[in-house]
Amino acid sequence: MIISVQSKILMTVLAVVLMFALFILFYYPARQESILLENYNSEIEHYANSVALGVKIALTEENFEGVEMSLNYVRDDNRLQFVSIIQNDSIWNENDSDFEIKKEVFMTFPDSITVDPYLASTEDFIIKTSPFSTPSMNGEVMLSFSTNEIAVGRRQIRIASTIASLTVFVIGLLIGYWLARKISVPVLELRDAANRVGEGDFTQSVINTSKDEIGELSIAFNKMVRDLNSAQIEISKRTEELTEEKKKSDELLLNILPIETAMELKSTGTSKAKYHESVTVLFTDFKDFTSISKTMSATQLVSELHNCFSRFDHIIRKYNIEKIKTIGDAYMCVAGLDTENEDHHFDVIKAAIEINECMKEYRREKEERGEIGFEIRIGIHSGPVVAGIVGVDKFAYDIWGSTVNLASRLEKNSEPNKINISHSLYQVVKNKYECTCRGKIVVKGLNEMEMYFVNGPKESFS
Fold first, then answer.
1. DSSP single-letter state for residue 269
2. What does the alpha-carbon distance between residue 155 and residue 166 come to, in Å, rounded to a whole number?
3. Within 10 A of 134 (CB to CB), how many other CB atoms are there?
4. Spatial CB neighbours of 194, under 8 Å, sequence gap ≥ 6
5. What is the pLDDT of residues 393-434, one digit of tens each?
6. What contacts 115, CB < 8 A, 6 or more positions away?
7. What does DSSP assign to residue 27?
8. Residue 428: burial class (beta carbons within 10 Å; 0-12, 13-18, 19+)
9. Per-residue pLDDT tens digits for 32-51
Protein backbone atom coordinates (compact mmCIF):
# COMPACT_ATOMS: atom_id res chain seq x y z
CA MET A 1 0.00 0.00 0.00
CA ILE A 2 1.27 3.38 -1.06
CA ILE A 3 1.06 6.08 1.63
CA SER A 4 0.83 9.61 0.38
CA VAL A 5 3.21 12.33 1.51
CA GLN A 6 0.30 14.11 3.15
CA SER A 7 -0.58 10.97 5.10
CA LYS A 8 3.03 10.58 6.15
CA ILE A 9 3.07 14.16 7.38
CA LEU A 10 -0.23 13.60 9.18
CA MET A 11 1.09 10.48 10.84
CA THR A 12 4.26 12.30 11.82
CA VAL A 13 2.29 15.17 13.31
CA LEU A 14 0.04 12.77 15.20
CA ALA A 15 3.07 10.85 16.45
CA VAL A 16 4.60 14.07 17.72
CA VAL A 17 1.30 15.02 19.36
CA LEU A 18 1.08 11.57 20.92
CA MET A 19 4.61 11.85 22.25
CA PHE A 20 3.86 15.26 23.67
CA ALA A 21 0.68 13.96 25.26
CA LEU A 22 2.59 11.07 26.82
CA PHE A 23 5.19 13.53 28.04
CA ILE A 24 2.46 15.53 29.75
CA LEU A 25 0.88 12.36 31.09
CA PHE A 26 4.00 10.76 32.59
CA TYR A 27 7.12 12.92 32.73
CA TYR A 28 5.48 16.24 33.61
CA PRO A 29 3.63 14.99 36.72
CA ALA A 30 6.74 13.11 37.87
CA ARG A 31 8.77 16.29 37.53
CA GLN A 32 6.14 18.40 39.26
CA GLU A 33 5.88 15.89 42.09
CA SER A 34 9.66 16.01 42.49
CA ILE A 35 9.57 19.82 42.62
CA LEU A 36 6.69 19.69 45.11
CA LEU A 37 8.67 17.36 47.37
CA GLU A 38 11.84 19.45 47.02
CA ASN A 39 9.97 22.64 47.91
CA TYR A 40 8.29 20.93 50.85
CA ASN A 41 11.64 19.63 52.14
CA SER A 42 13.26 23.04 51.59
CA GLU A 43 10.48 24.77 53.52
CA ILE A 44 10.77 22.34 56.44
CA GLU A 45 14.56 22.66 56.42
CA HIS A 46 14.18 26.44 56.57
CA TYR A 47 11.85 26.05 59.53
CA ALA A 48 14.36 23.73 61.25
CA ASN A 49 17.29 26.08 60.67
CA SER A 50 15.32 29.12 61.86
CA VAL A 51 14.13 27.38 65.02
CA ALA A 52 17.65 26.02 65.70
CA LEU A 53 19.11 29.52 65.36
CA GLY A 54 16.52 30.95 67.75
CA VAL A 55 17.10 28.14 70.26
CA LYS A 56 20.87 28.59 70.04
CA ILE A 57 20.60 32.33 70.74
CA ALA A 58 18.11 31.79 73.59
CA LEU A 59 20.16 29.03 75.26
CA THR A 60 23.37 31.03 74.90
CA GLU A 61 21.67 33.89 76.76
CA GLU A 62 20.01 31.39 79.16
CA ASN A 63 16.67 32.79 78.08
CA PHE A 64 14.24 29.88 78.31
CA GLU A 65 11.33 32.11 77.35
CA GLY A 66 13.26 32.72 74.15
CA VAL A 67 13.33 28.96 73.57
CA GLU A 68 9.53 28.91 73.78
CA MET A 69 9.33 31.86 71.39
CA SER A 70 11.59 30.01 68.95
CA LEU A 71 9.28 27.01 68.98
CA ASN A 72 6.31 29.35 68.40
CA TYR A 73 7.78 30.04 64.94
CA VAL A 74 6.26 26.77 63.66
CA ARG A 75 3.52 25.93 66.16
CA ASP A 76 0.73 27.46 64.09
CA ASP A 77 1.56 25.43 60.96
CA ASN A 78 -1.24 22.85 60.68
CA ARG A 79 1.11 20.42 58.95
CA LEU A 80 3.33 20.21 62.02
CA GLN A 81 3.09 16.99 64.03
CA PHE A 82 5.69 17.96 66.61
CA VAL A 83 8.82 20.00 67.15
CA SER A 84 11.42 18.80 69.66
CA ILE A 85 14.70 20.01 71.06
CA ILE A 86 17.09 17.03 71.23
CA GLN A 87 20.10 17.11 73.55
CA ASN A 88 23.19 15.30 72.24
CA ASP A 89 25.77 13.95 74.70
CA SER A 90 29.02 12.10 73.95
CA ILE A 91 29.31 8.87 75.97
CA TRP A 92 31.54 5.82 75.86
CA ASN A 93 30.14 2.83 73.99
CA GLU A 94 29.58 -0.53 75.63
CA ASN A 95 33.15 -1.65 74.88
CA ASP A 96 34.65 1.61 76.18
CA SER A 97 36.55 1.83 72.89
CA ASP A 98 35.08 4.96 71.42
CA PHE A 99 32.55 7.72 71.90
CA GLU A 100 29.00 7.57 70.64
CA ILE A 101 26.28 10.18 70.58
CA LYS A 102 23.41 9.73 73.02
CA LYS A 103 20.26 11.64 72.13
CA GLU A 104 17.62 12.68 74.66
CA VAL A 105 14.47 14.76 74.22
CA PHE A 106 14.88 18.08 76.04
CA MET A 107 11.55 19.72 75.08
CA THR A 108 8.65 18.86 72.76
CA PHE A 109 5.61 20.63 71.41
CA PRO A 110 2.97 19.39 71.84
CA ASP A 111 4.28 18.10 75.17
CA SER A 112 1.71 15.29 75.12
CA ILE A 113 3.64 13.50 72.37
CA THR A 114 6.43 11.06 73.20
CA VAL A 115 9.20 11.53 70.65
CA ASP A 116 11.87 9.02 69.63
CA PRO A 117 15.04 11.14 69.16
CA TYR A 118 16.26 8.64 66.53
CA LEU A 119 13.05 8.86 64.45
CA ALA A 120 13.45 8.90 60.64
CA SER A 121 11.17 10.03 57.81
CA THR A 122 8.45 7.71 56.44
CA GLU A 123 5.74 7.96 53.78
CA ASP A 124 3.39 9.53 56.34
CA PHE A 125 5.70 12.21 57.70
CA ILE A 126 8.99 13.97 56.99
CA ILE A 127 11.61 14.47 59.71
CA LYS A 128 14.05 17.38 59.51
CA THR A 129 16.79 18.17 62.01
CA SER A 130 19.10 21.17 62.40
CA PRO A 131 22.04 21.08 64.84
CA PHE A 132 23.06 23.82 67.25
CA SER A 133 25.82 24.26 69.78
CA THR A 134 25.86 26.48 72.88
CA PRO A 135 28.07 26.62 75.96
CA SER A 136 25.35 24.84 77.93
CA MET A 137 24.09 22.32 75.40
CA ASN A 138 24.89 20.61 72.12
CA GLY A 139 21.86 19.35 70.32
CA GLU A 140 19.50 19.63 67.41
CA VAL A 141 15.99 20.73 66.58
CA MET A 142 13.74 17.96 65.18
CA LEU A 143 10.57 18.79 63.22
CA SER A 144 7.98 16.31 61.95
CA PHE A 145 5.60 17.42 59.19
CA SER A 146 2.69 15.44 57.77
CA THR A 147 2.90 14.40 54.12
CA ASN A 148 -0.87 14.67 53.58
CA GLU A 149 -0.40 17.93 51.68
CA ILE A 150 2.08 16.23 49.34
CA ALA A 151 -0.35 13.36 48.69
CA VAL A 152 -3.13 15.82 47.85
CA GLY A 153 -0.81 17.76 45.57
CA ARG A 154 0.26 14.60 43.78
CA ARG A 155 -3.35 13.65 43.08
CA GLN A 156 -4.10 17.11 41.73
CA ILE A 157 -1.02 17.05 39.49
CA ARG A 158 -1.90 13.62 38.07
CA ILE A 159 -5.51 14.60 37.39
CA ALA A 160 -4.44 17.86 35.73
CA SER A 161 -1.79 16.11 33.63
CA THR A 162 -4.26 13.45 32.48
CA ILE A 163 -6.79 16.09 31.42
CA ALA A 164 -4.08 18.14 29.69
CA SER A 165 -2.71 15.05 27.91
CA LEU A 166 -6.13 14.06 26.57
CA THR A 167 -6.85 17.64 25.53
CA VAL A 168 -3.57 17.90 23.65
CA PHE A 169 -4.16 14.61 21.87
CA VAL A 170 -7.71 15.51 20.80
CA ILE A 171 -6.62 18.93 19.58
CA GLY A 172 -3.75 17.25 17.72
CA LEU A 173 -6.21 14.97 15.94
CA LEU A 174 -8.36 17.93 14.89
CA ILE A 175 -5.58 20.09 13.54
CA GLY A 176 -3.27 17.32 12.33
CA TYR A 177 -4.87 17.08 8.89
CA TRP A 178 -4.72 20.84 8.39
CA LEU A 179 -1.08 20.94 9.51
CA ALA A 180 -0.27 18.10 7.15
CA ARG A 181 -1.64 20.12 4.23
CA LYS A 182 0.00 23.39 5.13
CA ILE A 183 3.27 22.44 6.74
CA SER A 184 5.94 20.11 5.47
CA VAL A 185 9.41 21.02 4.32
CA PRO A 186 9.58 24.54 5.88
CA VAL A 187 8.72 23.20 9.31
CA LEU A 188 11.21 20.38 9.03
CA GLU A 189 13.86 22.84 7.95
CA LEU A 190 13.01 25.12 10.85
CA ARG A 191 13.07 22.19 13.25
CA ASP A 192 16.44 20.96 12.06
CA ALA A 193 17.94 24.44 12.10
CA ALA A 194 16.53 25.13 15.58
CA ASN A 195 18.06 21.90 16.88
CA ARG A 196 21.46 22.89 15.52
CA VAL A 197 21.10 26.34 17.08
CA GLY A 198 20.24 24.65 20.35
CA GLU A 199 23.51 22.75 20.05
CA GLY A 200 25.39 26.03 19.70
CA ASP A 201 25.62 26.49 15.93
CA PHE A 202 24.59 30.11 15.34
CA THR A 203 25.38 30.08 11.60
CA GLN A 204 22.05 28.43 10.69
CA SER A 205 19.47 30.00 8.38
CA VAL A 206 16.40 28.76 6.50
CA ILE A 207 15.23 29.73 3.01
CA ASN A 208 11.49 30.31 2.56
CA THR A 209 10.07 32.55 -0.14
CA SER A 210 6.42 32.19 0.90
CA LYS A 211 4.54 35.27 2.11
CA ASP A 212 2.45 33.53 4.76
CA GLU A 213 3.12 33.05 8.46
CA ILE A 214 5.66 30.29 7.78
CA GLY A 215 7.65 32.72 5.67
CA GLU A 216 7.45 35.37 8.41
CA LEU A 217 8.52 32.75 10.93
CA SER A 218 11.51 31.87 8.79
CA ILE A 219 12.49 35.54 8.55
CA ALA A 220 12.09 35.96 12.31
CA PHE A 221 14.08 32.78 12.94
CA ASN A 222 16.95 33.95 10.73
CA LYS A 223 17.00 37.33 12.50
CA MET A 224 16.95 35.62 15.89
CA VAL A 225 19.92 33.43 14.94
CA ARG A 226 21.86 36.46 13.68
CA ASP A 227 21.11 38.31 16.92
CA LEU A 228 22.12 35.27 18.95
CA ASN A 229 25.34 34.99 17.01
CA SER A 230 26.11 38.67 17.61
CA ALA A 231 25.22 38.31 21.27
CA GLN A 232 27.43 35.22 21.57
CA ILE A 233 30.36 37.07 20.04
CA GLU A 234 29.77 40.03 22.35
CA ILE A 235 29.43 37.77 25.39
CA SER A 236 32.67 35.98 24.53
CA LYS A 237 34.41 39.33 24.17
CA ARG A 238 33.00 40.67 27.44
CA THR A 239 33.87 37.42 29.19
CA GLU A 240 37.47 37.72 28.08
CA GLU A 241 37.56 41.33 29.24
CA LEU A 242 36.00 40.45 32.59
CA THR A 243 38.44 37.57 33.04
CA GLU A 244 41.34 39.91 32.36
CA GLU A 245 39.96 42.56 34.72
CA LYS A 246 39.40 39.94 37.41
CA LYS A 247 42.97 38.77 36.99
CA LYS A 248 44.21 42.34 37.35
CA SER A 249 42.05 42.99 40.42
CA ASP A 250 43.22 39.73 42.02
CA GLU A 251 46.84 40.63 41.36
CA LEU A 252 46.27 44.10 42.83
CA LEU A 253 44.58 42.65 45.91
CA LEU A 254 47.41 40.16 46.44
CA ASN A 255 49.89 42.99 46.02
CA ILE A 256 48.47 44.94 48.97
CA LEU A 257 47.33 42.09 51.23
CA PRO A 258 48.73 38.73 52.38
CA ILE A 259 47.26 35.90 50.33
CA GLU A 260 45.30 34.41 53.25
CA THR A 261 43.73 37.78 54.08
CA ALA A 262 43.02 38.51 50.41
CA MET A 263 41.23 35.17 49.93
CA GLU A 264 39.17 35.73 53.07
CA LEU A 265 38.24 39.25 51.93
CA LYS A 266 37.18 37.97 48.49
CA SER A 267 35.07 35.11 49.83
CA THR A 268 33.36 36.87 52.77
CA GLY A 269 33.74 40.60 52.10
CA THR A 270 35.45 41.05 55.48
CA SER A 271 38.62 39.94 57.23
CA LYS A 272 39.03 39.30 60.94
CA ALA A 273 42.10 40.50 62.81
CA LYS A 274 44.44 37.61 63.69
CA TYR A 275 46.85 37.14 66.56
CA HIS A 276 50.32 35.87 65.61
CA GLU A 277 52.45 34.45 68.42
CA SER A 278 55.83 35.07 66.81
CA VAL A 279 56.80 37.35 63.93
CA THR A 280 59.80 39.50 63.11
CA VAL A 281 59.28 43.21 62.38
CA LEU A 282 61.80 45.37 60.49
CA PHE A 283 61.85 49.18 60.40
CA THR A 284 64.13 51.42 58.34
CA ASP A 285 64.51 55.15 57.90
CA PHE A 286 67.08 57.52 56.49
CA LYS A 287 69.51 59.64 58.53
CA ASP A 288 69.04 63.42 58.11
CA PHE A 289 66.15 62.80 55.72
CA THR A 290 64.51 66.15 56.46
CA SER A 291 67.64 68.21 55.77
CA ILE A 292 68.55 66.25 52.64
CA SER A 293 65.02 66.44 51.27
CA LYS A 294 65.14 70.25 51.44
CA THR A 295 67.84 70.17 48.75
CA MET A 296 65.55 68.30 46.32
CA SER A 297 62.43 69.18 44.43
CA ALA A 298 59.26 67.30 45.30
CA THR A 299 59.57 65.26 42.10
CA GLN A 300 63.18 64.35 42.82
CA LEU A 301 62.35 63.38 46.41
CA VAL A 302 59.52 61.07 45.37
CA SER A 303 61.73 59.56 42.67
CA GLU A 304 64.54 58.85 45.18
CA LEU A 305 62.17 57.26 47.68
CA HIS A 306 60.58 55.18 44.93
CA ASN A 307 64.02 54.03 43.79
CA CYS A 308 65.09 52.99 47.31
CA PHE A 309 61.80 51.38 48.35
CA SER A 310 61.55 49.47 45.07
CA ARG A 311 64.91 47.90 45.84
CA PHE A 312 63.68 47.02 49.32
CA ASP A 313 60.52 45.46 47.83
CA HIS A 314 62.61 43.30 45.52
CA ILE A 315 64.79 42.10 48.40
CA ILE A 316 62.04 41.22 50.89
CA ARG A 317 60.06 39.40 48.24
CA LYS A 318 62.87 36.85 48.02
CA TYR A 319 62.53 36.02 51.72
CA ASN A 320 58.73 35.76 51.94
CA ILE A 321 58.54 39.00 53.93
CA GLU A 322 55.32 41.03 53.87
CA LYS A 323 55.59 44.76 53.25
CA ILE A 324 53.20 46.61 55.56
CA LYS A 325 53.57 50.29 54.69
CA THR A 326 55.81 53.30 54.20
CA ILE A 327 55.40 56.53 56.14
CA GLY A 328 57.55 59.31 54.75
CA ASP A 329 61.06 57.87 54.71
CA ALA A 330 60.16 54.98 57.04
CA TYR A 331 59.74 51.47 55.64
CA MET A 332 58.03 48.70 57.62
CA CYS A 333 57.78 44.99 56.87
CA VAL A 334 57.17 41.75 58.76
CA ALA A 335 57.92 38.03 58.38
CA GLY A 336 56.16 35.15 60.09
CA LEU A 337 52.54 36.00 59.33
CA ASP A 338 52.63 32.77 57.36
CA THR A 339 52.51 30.16 60.13
CA GLU A 340 54.58 27.74 58.03
CA ASN A 341 57.59 30.08 58.02
CA GLU A 342 59.48 29.15 61.19
CA ASP A 343 62.74 30.76 60.00
CA HIS A 344 61.33 34.28 59.84
CA HIS A 345 64.01 35.59 62.28
CA PHE A 346 66.82 34.60 59.89
CA ASP A 347 64.90 35.66 56.77
CA VAL A 348 64.57 39.22 58.10
CA ILE A 349 68.25 39.35 59.16
CA LYS A 350 69.28 38.22 55.64
CA ALA A 351 67.01 40.81 54.06
CA ALA A 352 68.30 43.54 56.40
CA ILE A 353 71.91 42.76 55.45
CA GLU A 354 71.02 42.93 51.74
CA ILE A 355 69.11 46.19 52.23
CA ASN A 356 72.08 47.68 54.10
CA GLU A 357 74.52 46.62 51.36
CA CYS A 358 72.09 47.88 48.71
CA MET A 359 71.99 51.32 50.35
CA LYS A 360 75.80 51.43 50.63
CA GLU A 361 76.04 50.77 46.90
CA TYR A 362 73.33 53.36 46.26
CA ARG A 363 75.25 55.95 48.30
CA ARG A 364 78.49 55.23 46.41
CA GLU A 365 76.69 55.72 43.10
CA LYS A 366 75.29 59.07 44.28
CA GLU A 367 78.67 60.28 45.59
CA GLU A 368 80.37 59.38 42.28
CA ARG A 369 77.93 61.79 40.61
CA GLY A 370 78.60 64.45 43.25
CA GLU A 371 75.20 63.99 44.85
CA ILE A 372 74.14 63.25 48.42
CA GLY A 373 72.76 59.78 49.11
CA PHE A 374 70.71 58.56 52.03
CA GLU A 375 72.24 56.58 54.90
CA ILE A 376 69.91 53.94 56.35
CA ARG A 377 69.14 52.91 59.92
CA ILE A 378 67.58 49.51 60.55
CA GLY A 379 65.86 48.13 63.66
CA ILE A 380 64.53 44.58 64.11
CA HIS A 381 62.57 42.85 66.88
CA SER A 382 60.61 39.59 67.19
CA GLY A 383 57.49 38.89 69.18
CA PRO A 384 53.67 38.67 69.01
CA VAL A 385 51.48 41.02 66.96
CA VAL A 386 47.86 41.44 65.91
CA ALA A 387 47.37 41.82 62.14
CA GLY A 388 44.32 42.86 60.18
CA ILE A 389 42.52 45.38 57.98
CA VAL A 390 41.49 48.80 59.25
CA GLY A 391 38.86 51.07 57.68
CA VAL A 392 36.21 50.51 55.01
CA ASP A 393 37.26 53.10 52.40
CA LYS A 394 40.81 52.75 51.06
CA PHE A 395 41.41 50.13 53.73
CA ALA A 396 44.93 49.26 54.81
CA TYR A 397 46.52 46.10 56.18
CA ASP A 398 48.49 46.80 59.36
CA ILE A 399 50.01 45.19 62.47
CA TRP A 400 49.85 46.32 66.08
CA GLY A 401 51.43 45.50 69.42
CA SER A 402 54.45 46.14 71.61
CA THR A 403 56.62 44.21 69.14
CA VAL A 404 55.97 46.89 66.52
CA ASN A 405 56.76 49.68 69.00
CA LEU A 406 60.01 48.00 70.10
CA ALA A 407 61.14 47.47 66.49
CA SER A 408 60.49 51.15 65.83
CA ARG A 409 62.49 52.17 68.95
CA LEU A 410 65.37 49.93 67.86
CA GLU A 411 65.42 51.66 64.48
CA LYS A 412 65.38 55.11 66.10
CA ASN A 413 68.33 54.11 68.33
CA SER A 414 70.31 52.51 65.50
CA GLU A 415 73.19 54.19 63.68
CA PRO A 416 73.74 54.89 59.99
CA ASN A 417 74.40 51.73 57.97
CA LYS A 418 73.82 49.57 61.06
CA ILE A 419 71.32 46.82 61.86
CA ASN A 420 70.13 47.16 65.47
CA ILE A 421 68.40 44.17 67.09
CA SER A 422 66.90 43.38 70.49
CA HIS A 423 68.38 41.07 73.13
CA SER A 424 65.62 38.47 72.59
CA LEU A 425 66.30 38.36 68.84
CA TYR A 426 70.02 38.14 69.50
CA GLN A 427 69.44 34.99 71.56
CA VAL A 428 67.82 33.38 68.51
CA VAL A 429 70.39 34.37 65.85
CA LYS A 430 73.65 34.52 67.83
CA ASN A 431 74.81 31.08 66.70
CA LYS A 432 74.65 32.07 63.03
CA TYR A 433 75.49 35.79 63.07
CA GLU A 434 78.32 37.86 64.50
CA CYS A 435 76.89 40.59 66.68
CA THR A 436 78.30 43.47 68.73
CA CYS A 437 76.74 44.15 72.11
CA ARG A 438 75.92 47.81 72.61
CA GLY A 439 74.96 47.39 76.25
CA LYS A 440 71.82 48.83 77.76
CA ILE A 441 70.53 51.99 76.08
CA VAL A 442 67.84 54.27 77.43
CA VAL A 443 64.79 54.10 75.18
CA LYS A 444 62.07 56.70 75.34
CA GLY A 445 59.08 55.36 77.25
CA LEU A 446 60.71 51.95 77.84
CA ASN A 447 63.61 52.69 80.23
CA GLU A 448 66.78 50.72 79.40
CA MET A 449 66.99 48.13 76.66
CA GLU A 450 69.93 45.91 75.67
CA MET A 451 70.77 46.18 71.96
CA TYR A 452 73.11 44.54 69.46
CA PHE A 453 74.51 45.43 66.05
CA VAL A 454 74.47 42.61 63.48
CA ASN A 455 77.85 42.49 61.75
CA GLY A 456 77.19 39.59 59.41
CA PRO A 457 76.98 35.78 59.22
CA LYS A 458 79.55 33.66 60.97
CA GLU A 459 82.04 31.93 58.69
CA SER A 460 80.41 28.52 59.15
CA PHE A 461 77.08 29.95 57.91
CA SER A 462 78.28 32.44 55.31
1. S
2. 17
3. 15
4. 204, 221
5. 667 788 999 999 999 999 999 999 999 999 999 999 999 999
6. 82, 84, 105, 108, 142
7. I
8. middle
9. 778 888 888 888 888 888 88
